Amino acid sequence: MDLALSLGRRNLGATWPNPSVGCVIVRTDDDGYRRIVGRGWTGQGGRPHAETVALAQAGAEARGATVYVTLEPCSHHGVTPPCADALIAAGISRAVIAMTDPDARVNGRGVGRLMDAGISVDVGIGADAASSAHAGFVSHRLQRRPLVTLKLATTIDGRIATHTGESKWITGAQARRRAHALRATHDGVMVGSGTVFADDPLLTCRLPGLEARSPVRILLDRRLRIPLTKTLIATARQHPTWLLTLPDADGQRIKALQDCGVDVIKVDPRETGLPDMAKALGLIAEKGICSLLVEGGAGVAAALLADDLVDRLIWFRAPAVIGADGIAALAALGVERLDDQPRFRRLAVRAVGDDLMESYERIR
């Protein structure tokens, strides 16, 4: 199962709206020797499915074999036939499944179909690791929004720039490479208009060999202030780019953005006039995004935290201080009582060059 999980992680960020599943087929010979006869993982764009790839590799040797798969095989007809039926037809004798599929079209039906065919089924081996790997898919299906990971890169005292706005670079080259690796494993990456004005980012993955794994770039710009000459807009035809704005946004401005290749999405406002972030995430999910990396700025990060919409937090800390006159990583959250502050569980702390990379998950 560890191997299946490792295989499934290969295409994280590249299979949406489908999950990135891993599958391993093991055959036990007459002398008791166990051999891997098939391996597979979900293809880019969600197809082919991992089981289909592994079965094609195993061929006739799948008969009587054991299949290890990180997510319950599908049982419904979509673009491809059900994987549960393919496993049955191949004659496997046992299926080891890390977790059931939360999709209402499956959710136990794949397991039931295998058992009805006389196949031995074990569910739950590697469940914790599978739940983490498939967290975006689970969030998409159960919460109708993507899993949100907030990434911050600050000094020790939580500053992202000096009072003059200088921010390149707070963290070192190794930390920035890790940030690019995060982009490669997420379906979308979001920033606010302030970040675009300050940094004019490209928001692609520029690690050698992973350039094709760049996420959908998502920009939050309620007033449509971003000039068409900014990099995100100027490169929209080369890299998928979505822009979230309010329903009353200027029609001519929207047309100009669309002519540049930008997909404009209208989001209803809250009473404050700001975009409703929960509705924004819901619209992103409707278009298939299961995992979202948020890279700033302070206003967007605070809005998501205030509405309890951040599931994971990746914090890069540089060994330096700027002071209170520097620009803070987060805008005001309005927390008055300690009991109301968003709480996170630390998962890991590691050195990345001279910086620290801290990983957290939301305590709910």
Q: Could you list some keywords that capture this structure?
A:
single chain; 364 residues; alpha/beta; 9-stranded mixed sheet; 16 strands; 27% helix
Number of strands: 16
Order of helices and strands: HEEHEHEHEHHEEHEHEHEHEHEHEEEE
Radius of gyration: 23 Å
Beta-strand percent range: 15-25%
Number of helices: 12
Order of strands in the sheet with most strands: 11-10-9-8-12-6-13-16-15
Largest sheet: 9 strands, mixed
In whole angstroms, the N-to-C terminal distance is 28 Å
Classify the secondary structure makeup into a structural class: alpha/beta
Average pLDDT, all residues: 94
Report helical residue fraction: 25-40%
The stretches of 5 or more residues where confidence is low (pLDDT under 50) are: none
Q: What overall geometry do the principal axes of the alpha carbons give?
A: elongated
